[in-house]
């Protein structure tokens, strides 16, 4: 491990945006191979504890991959542990410091900076993933997916479940409101206009056009980012050391959030559930919504009842923008079976597994040419592959939890009419002064 | 009976009827949420839920689904283990200390009693951070001992037993000593039987409090195999999906064990509360 | 009895006392005293669990006083404590007066009203989460009265929704305690309170209530203590939202410690809570001690 973590051979350009910005807090991070015993003999063996969040569709894929792996490597036992998504990060923060750290963790890319600053994750082991050099490893994946997992020129995870946001809309509700289901809104201005037309109060309760997530921190970032970036502003500075929501762009974005959607409406399955029931006619979501919407309401059929389109842009925007994220398989610094952990992770990148996860669970593993796979034919994948080139994968900040919670507070305050947008934006920036940097 | 008395009687009857009517309405309002919970737990799917009425009765089917799942029985078992062991520990240790504080003189008695009194109203929340760090040092995160021990012994328990033990006549102990009984023998053979009501009260209150403990298991148990019911139900939803009918079936099941124990030890409950208040 | 035997007896007692009290003493030492001391130390440090605590002096306390969220959380907690204690006690007392009279029907009603109090708080929270959900019982009732509302999603409503649940949960418990208090009153006072009619209210305030003072204080102390320690309702029903409208102090503490890894800051918060609760501990003790003295 020592030998590996000191190497810094990354392709020029790869992850430089993130790496350059992060270096201040990563200084002296080179010696994190100290903890945890490791068998680097090159033979997969022992027990590998895998933590991931509950996701029924992916679990099927995972279980069969485990069975296949065990056939090839009968000396290895894989112990998966499923944690509900809302608790995953809290549990991880405490698990990574204990003596019983798992060997593999499915980690959200947005939370990575926190763990890496605390030196709790291990850089990718090249021998275990069968790569001769970082270049060779990096060549396997989409650049921007890998760059969001790269800190100080080291890659700390293997990307899986890679996504950009989309506009999801209900064709049936569009038709009822006299809107053309084949012409979804392309601008935020249109979204507001359509939203008005789609809002009705009838016997079945209130139905609305657009709906935001008001309580989920990751969605606060994914929703606000395209709005602010599209106006030419930023929520966080490029190096993540300061925030600028109280810029004219930030304030306008917050005002826009307040102008559409209804924060008082709720559903046990959040916006996904409202969309599946047709209460909300439009939402921002990831590609998984294709299967998720149907799983919440078997009558909702993709392409027929509902559809997806690229993220809307501001009418005035010069450049397109969208938001994106990736999950990653990571190995904790305190893991006891690191080599086998990476080896198994590498096995999960096998085409057979990645195809199955795309097909069954709608999860994209961003290998270099995932779009060319026969299973990636659908229009949703084409949109994603277009959007990837301009999507913002978020600014890595170690205090992401606090930042995103404060962002959620700002959105909730403005949407509920508790604060004017400029006040909420300023409060956010003030709160961030003690948190970032 | 004169007219005035009769009028008084009528008025009293009227008032009584009115008071019964009000009490009955209040009682019904109090029971309404439980009734609603049962209707929901009896629904076959969430689409059958309308908040107020039964649409079929599928409670037993839901129970079967719940117990077939594997994680729920585990939470239930963990809750029983954690609450049961903690309550027994609390009773054993509090019985000894409470009796000693009340009826024996020994060095450090005042300090111990002062500590007990000071922590009477404290919740685990106030020491949760350092205790967590300590559990990590000794490697007890994700273990039953880590789940059970830190909160097992309560100031309330020691205090309750002491209050009861003050009622043991010193002459009785004195007589036993003259008969040549050792102190340990006096404690186990004489004091413990006399303290029995207090110890049952303590067992009950301790079990109920542990059963309802959310914050500590939430923090100390990362591994779902160690989750108790409060933690398990808090994370009952899948990635994006929640089933209310199964959630409430699970909730109803989690009410049963404390309810059974409460029913069995009912009279000790009220006596315990009126003496020492509710725990935590 | 000779002095020698008495001395031997005293030393045997001393040994027995030490032996019996030691397990409890160790528990209090390990799980209260040491953590308390450690907490004081941590409150002067910056500590994220990953690297060693770093001494920062009074910074955590300064930060605490400057943080709008801290003051917000205090306000939320005070509203919560007031809202959970006062209406519940008043209602419980009103119910306890008629319910404390003898009679089988009243005994049955007492047991039925007590049922919610026998339900664990986490289970009660789950039930009410579903009641407050869209299309749930609260919406059904709301439709016919005050219109359908975002019970847990409207920042102006959420706290009251949580409080309704808490009042429902604790009402039966306080009724039982008040009934016990009323039934322990001297018969004549009790009879006077039981008289129906125009003088009943006067008698109640002038005679019954003062006699019931001890029970009232006792219930007040345990109710306030419980409310200050309350974590589960806010965590399970609203996660402190919407817009932090229900972020009570223990939840604020929990978030800082376990979501944001600010252990030092959380330790400082915990010490503040400890001071408040210590005062309640002493109040509770004095109440019980006075009882003994009587």
UniProtKB/TrEMBL annotation, chain A:
List, alphabetically, the InterPro entries matched: Bact_solute-bd_prot1, SBP, TAT_signal
> Which PROSITE patterns does this one have?
PROKAR_LIPOPROTEIN (PS51257), TAT (PS51318)
Source domain of life: Bacteria
Q: Name one Pfam family in it.
A: SBP_bac_1
Q: Which PANTHER family match?
A: ARABINOSE-BINDING PROTEIN-RELATED, DIACETYLCHITOBIOSE BINDING PROTEIN DASA
UniProt protein name: ABC-type glycerol-3-phosphate transport system substrate-binding protein
Protein's organism: Kribbella antiqua
Lineage of the species this protein comes from: Bacteria, Bacillati, Actinomycetota, Actinomycetes, Propionibacteriales
From TrEMBL, chain B:
Q: How does it sit in the membrane?
A: Multi-pass membrane protein
- Tell me which UniProt keywords the record has, alphabetically: Cell membrane, Membrane, Sugar transport, Transmembrane, Transmembrane helix, Transport
- Give the transmembrane region(s): 20-43, 75-99, 111-135, 147-165, 186-209, 244-265
| GO BP term, pick one | transmembrane transport
Q: What is its main location?
A: membrane
Q: Which Gene3D superfamilies match?
A: MetI-like
Tell me yes or no: is Metal-binding among this UniProt entry's keywords: no
Gene Ontology cellular-component terms for this entry are: plasma membrane
Q: Where in the cell is it found?
A: Cell membrane
Q: Which domain of life is it from?
A: Bacteria
Using the record's annotation, list all stretches that form the ABC transmembrane type-1 domain: 76-265
The UniProt entry, under Pfam families, shows: BPD_transp_1
Similarity comment text for this entry: Belongs to the binding-protein-dependent transport system permease family.
The protein depicted here goes by the name Multiple sugar transport system permease protein
Originating species? Kribbella antiqua
TrEMBL record, chain C:
Gene Ontology BP terms = transmembrane transport
Q: What InterPro entries does the annotation carry? A: MetI-like, MetI-like_sf, UgpAE/MalFG_permease
The ABC transmembrane type-1 domain sits at 74-284
What do the Gene Ontology cellular component annotations say?
Answer: plasma membrane
- Where does this one sit in the cell? Cell membrane
PROSITE patterns attached to this UniProt entry: ABC_TM1 (PS50928)
Q: Pfam families annotated for this entry? A: BPD_transp_1
Taxonomically, the superkingdom here is Bacteria
Q: Does the keyword Ribosomal protein apply?
A: no
Bilayer topology annotation? Multi-pass membrane protein
For this protein, the parts annotated as crossing the membrane are 20-41, 78-99, 111-131, 157-180, 216-237, 257-280
What Gene3D superfamilies does the record point to?
Answer: MetI-like (1.10.3720.10)
Q: Which family does it belong to?
A: Belongs to the binding-protein-dependent transport system permease family.
Give the protein name, as stated in the record: Multiple sugar transport system permease protein
């Amino acid at each position: 491990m020592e030998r590996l973590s000191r190497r810094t051979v990354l392709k020029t350009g790869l992850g430089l945006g993130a790496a350059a910005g992060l270096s201040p807090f990563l200084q002296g991070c080179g010696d994190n191979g100290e903890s945890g015993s490791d068998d680097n003999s090159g033979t997969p063996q022992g027990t590998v504890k895998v933590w991931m969040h509950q996701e029924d569709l992916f679990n099927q894929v995972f279980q069969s991959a485990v069975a296949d792996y065990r056939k090839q490597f009968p000396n290895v036992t894989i112990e998966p542990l499923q944690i509900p998504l809302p608790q995953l990060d809290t549990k991880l923060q405490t698990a990574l410091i204990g003596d019983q750290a798992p060997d593999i963790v499915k980690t959200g890319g947005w939370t990575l900076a926190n763990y890496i600053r605390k030196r709790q994750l291990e850089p990718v082991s090249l021998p275990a993933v069968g790569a001769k050099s970082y270049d060779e490893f990096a060549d396997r994946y989409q650049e921007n997916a890998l760059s969001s997992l790269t800190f100080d020129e080291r890659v700390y995870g293997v990307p899986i479940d890679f996504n950009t946001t989309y506009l999801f809309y209900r064709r049936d509700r569009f038709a009822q409101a006299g809107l053309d289901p084949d012409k979804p809104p392309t601008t935020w201005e249109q979204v507001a206009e359509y939203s008005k037309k789609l809002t009705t109060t009838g016997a079945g309760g209130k139905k609305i056009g657009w709906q935001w997530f008001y309580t989920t921190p990751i969605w606060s970032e994914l929703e606000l980012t395209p709005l602010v970036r599209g106006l030419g502003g930023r929520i966080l500075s490029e190096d993540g050391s300061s925030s600028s929501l109280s810029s004219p762009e930030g304030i306008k974005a917050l005002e826009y959030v307040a102008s559409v959607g209804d924060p008082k409406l709720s559903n046990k399955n959040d916006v996904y559930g409202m969309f599946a029931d047709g209460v909300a006619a439009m939402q921002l979501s990831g590609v998984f919504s294709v299967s998720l919407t149907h799983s919440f309401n078997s009558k909702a059929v993709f392409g027929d009842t509902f559809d997806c389109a690229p993220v809307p842009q501001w009418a005035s925007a010069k450049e397109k923008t969208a938001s994106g994220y990736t999950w990653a398989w990571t190995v904790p610094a305190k893991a006891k079976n690191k080599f086998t952990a990476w080896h198994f992770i590498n096995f999960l990148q096998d085409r057979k597994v990645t195809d199955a996860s795309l097909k069954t669970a709608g999860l994209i593993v961003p290998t270099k040419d995932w779009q060319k796979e026969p299973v990636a034919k659908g229009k949703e994948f084409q949109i994603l592959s277009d959007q990837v080139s301009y999507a913002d994968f978020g600014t890595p900040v170690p205090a992401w939890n606090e930042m995103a919670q404060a962002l959620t507070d700002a959105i909730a305050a403005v949407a509920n009419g508790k604060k004017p947008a400029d006040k909420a934006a300023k409060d956010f920036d003030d709160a961030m002064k003690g948190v970032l940097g | 009976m004169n007219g005035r008395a009769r009028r008084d009687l009528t008025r009293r009857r009227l008032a009584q009827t009115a008071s019964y009517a009000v009490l009955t309405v209040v009682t019904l309002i109090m029971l309404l949420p439980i009734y609603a919970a049962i209707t929901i737990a009896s629904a076959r799917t969430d689409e059958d839920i309308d908040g107020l009425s039964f649409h079929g009765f599928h409670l037993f089917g839901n129970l079967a689904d719940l117990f077939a799942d594997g994680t729920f029985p585990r939470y239930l078992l963990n809750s029983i283990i954690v609450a049961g062991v903690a309550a027994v520990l609390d009773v054993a240790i509090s019985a000894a200390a409470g009796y000693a504080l009340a009826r024996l003189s020994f060095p450090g008695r005042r300090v111990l009693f002062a500590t007990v009194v000071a922590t009477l109203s404290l919740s685990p929340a106030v020491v949760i951070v350092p205790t967590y760090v300590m559990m990590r040092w000794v490697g007890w995160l994700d273990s039953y001992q880590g789940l059970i021990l830190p909160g097992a012994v309560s100031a309330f328990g020691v205090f309750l037993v002491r209050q009861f033990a003050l009622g043991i006549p010193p002459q009785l102990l004195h007589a036993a000593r003259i008969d040549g009984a050792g102190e340990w023998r006096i404690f186990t053979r004489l004091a413990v039987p006399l303290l029995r009501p207090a110890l049952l009260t303590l067992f009950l209150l301790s079990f109920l409090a542990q059963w309802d403990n959310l914050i500590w298991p939430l923090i100390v148990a990362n591994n779902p195999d160690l989750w108790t019911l409060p933690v398990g139900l808090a994370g009952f939803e899948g990635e994006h999906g929640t089933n209310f009918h199964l959630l409430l079936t699970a909730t109803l099941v989690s009410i049963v064990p404390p309810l059974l124990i409460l029913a069995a030890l009912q009279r000790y409950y009220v006596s315990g509360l009126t003496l020492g208040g509710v725990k935590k | 009895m000779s002095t020698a035997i008495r001395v031997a007896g005293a030393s045997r007692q001393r040994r027995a006392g030490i032996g019996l009290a030691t397990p409890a003493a160790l528990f209090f030492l390990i799980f209260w005293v040491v953590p308390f001391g450690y907490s004081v130390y941590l409150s002067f440090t910056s500590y994220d669990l990953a690297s060693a605590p770093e001494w920062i002096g009074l910074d955590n306390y300064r930060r605490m006083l400057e943080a709008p969220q801290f003051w917000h959380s205090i306000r939320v907690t005070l509203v919560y404590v007031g809202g959970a204690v006062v209406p519940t006690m008043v209602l419980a007392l009103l119910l306890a007066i008629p319910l404390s009279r003898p009679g089988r029907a009243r005994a049955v009603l007492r047991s039925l009203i007590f049922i919610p109090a026998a339900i664990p708080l986490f289970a009660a929270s789950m039930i009410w989460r579903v009641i407050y959900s869209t299309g749930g019982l609260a919406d059904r009732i709301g439709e016919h009265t005050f219109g359908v509302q975002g019970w847990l999603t409207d920042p102006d409503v959420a706290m009251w929704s949580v409080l309704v649940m808490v009042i429902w949960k604790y009402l039966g418990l306080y009724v039982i305690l008040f009934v016990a208090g009323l039934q322990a009153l001297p018969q004549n006072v009790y009879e006077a309170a039981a008289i129906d009619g125009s003088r009943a209210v006067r008698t109640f305030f002038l005679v019954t209530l003062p006699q019931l003072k001890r029970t009232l204080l006792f219930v007040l102390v345990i109710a306030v203590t419980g409310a200050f320690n309350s974590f589960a309702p806010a965590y399970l029903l609203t996660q402190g939202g919407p817009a932090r409208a229900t972020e009570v102090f223990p939840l604020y503490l929990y978030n800082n410690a376990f979501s944001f890894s600010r252990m030092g800051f959380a330790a400082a918060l915990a010490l503040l809570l400890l001071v408040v609760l210590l005062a309640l501990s002493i109040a509770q003790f004095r109440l019980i001690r006075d009882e003994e003295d009587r």
